[in-house]
Every structure is written in structure tokens, then in C-alpha cells.
Amino acid sequence: MIHEVDEVLKKLLGGGALTGSGIDVAFEAPTRDWAARRNAPVVNAYLYDIREDVNRRQRGQIAVRDERDIVVRRRQPPRWFRLSYLLTAWTKTPQDEHRLLSAVLATLLPRELLPPDELPGSLGALGLSMPLTVAGIQTESRSLAEIWSALGGELKPSLDLVVTAPFPAFPEYDAGPPVTEGATVRLRGMDGDPPESEGRSHRPHQVAAARAAREEAAAARTARENAAGRAARKDPAGHPVDRTEQP
């Protein structure tokens, strides 16, 4: 799941305001050694925190249907995780880095919610949209200064990007076969009088026939009402009467 989020971010950061720029997107930790090895402009997206968004946790089960809309499996609702990325720009001058960060911000701000058809693999298969938050209020326990200190580098201008991604909750359970027989009803008195009646069952074909009969009766009733309305709008000679005329 995390590598698929990386793919989405790389595609996003390579488009928008950065389309055709040739800017590379890296996911390595921006340490001193990494910074010394780079020789071209780079946008670094360092994943520094992963934790569950417990406010999105759901209970119960979700039905999984096949192409005939029949329930074939049941599974738990997906769990949602907040993936926090530290976005930094690496060029030769601070001015160029600021321009690059501005382009990244302009690219991500309009994309607050990514639809399922833009998500790869298992993310897209869940059919859920994925929210993005960029340069928002930091809610993680570690401050950016602590992160840079742990990386052993100097503090740089950065954007905090939080992607809230769904993760499938396993296992899945096979559902029982679909119901093909209707219910059977038997009646009897509390004291045995009258005795228990014979069972009356509804089969699928009987239910379909009863539904068709009701629809046919409703159509016939509508036709009769329409015919009566047309007859009421004619004079005794059978000529149409214009009801809009005033006496």
C-alpha cells in the first residue's frame, strides 16, 4: 500500500506546474551524504511518520459482490493510515528552491481528494477516494526540527504533506449461497385450536408472477382512467370539448 502511495505522489509531483520540467522525485532520507551525491534539481518526498487515523475506524462488515450483484464474500472495513511526507527542494540556490517549492504547492493544492480511478493496484480496487493535506497544521508528535536533527542535516524550507490512505483489513470470509427458496408460513392457535395449517411457501417464480400481475393490473387501471378522461372531454355528439373556454 505504501509503495502505491509513492507511485501516486511521483506522478502528481511530475505533473501540474512541473510538467515537462524534468525534475526528479526522490524518496530517500535527505541526509548529508544523500545531499552530497545529488547533481541535479530534485524534489525529495521523505516519509517520516506512519500512524492510524483512529477517527476513521469503522466496525461491522462490508459485502463484496460479483458482476451479477450477488454477495460472494464479506470483509472488515479498511483501516485508514496517515502517511506524513517531508517535501523539500534541492537545487544550487535558495531562490531556485523557493520557486520549486512554489510549483509543488501549486500542483498539490487543487488535489485535496484523489478519486479511485487515479489510484493504482489495491488502492484503486477498494473504490475509495484518498484525501491529501499539504502545508497544514502539524499534528504528529515529532516536530520538524527534531526530524532534521535526526537526519543530521540543516533545517531547510519544507512542505508537510499528509496522505490518508485506506489499507485492506483481512481476512475475508466467504458468504453463504444466495437464497433461492421463499419463506414458508404455517398458522395454528396458541392452544392448538385451530390446528396447524399446511405450509404456504413463496417460490421465486411465484413472487415474480405476482409482481407481474400487479404491474399488469396497475397498467390496465391507468388505461381505463385515461380512456374515461378522454370520454369526459367530448360533447354528446362525440366532438372534443375545449375545457379552456370560459362560459
Please describe what this structure looks like.
- With 247 residues, this protein is α+β, with helices and mostly antiparallel strands.
- The protein contains 6 helices and 9 strands.
- The longest helix is centred in the C-terminal third of the chain and has 29 residues, at 204-232.
Task: Provide tags for this entry.
247 residues, alpha+beta, seven-stranded mixed β-sheet, two-stranded antiparallel ribbon, 9 strands, disordered C terminus
Layout of SSEs?
Elements (H helix, E strand, L loop, with lengths): L1 H12 L10 E3 L5 H6 L4 E11 L9 E4 L5 E20 L3 H15 L4 E2 L6 H5 L4 E5 L9 H8 L7 E16 L9 E2 L14 E2 L2 H29 L15
Major β-sheet profile: 7 strands, mixed
Amount of beta strand = 25-35%
The count of helical stretches stands at: 6
Query: Low-confidence stretches at least 5 residues in length (pLDDT < 50)?
Result: 243-247
Number of strands: 9
Order of H and E elements:
HEHEEEHEHEHEEEH
Kindly report how far apart the N and C termini lie: 78 Å
> What value does the average pLDDT take?
80
Global morphology: elongated
The rounded Rg comes to 33 Å
Helical content class:
25-40%
Structural class: alpha+beta
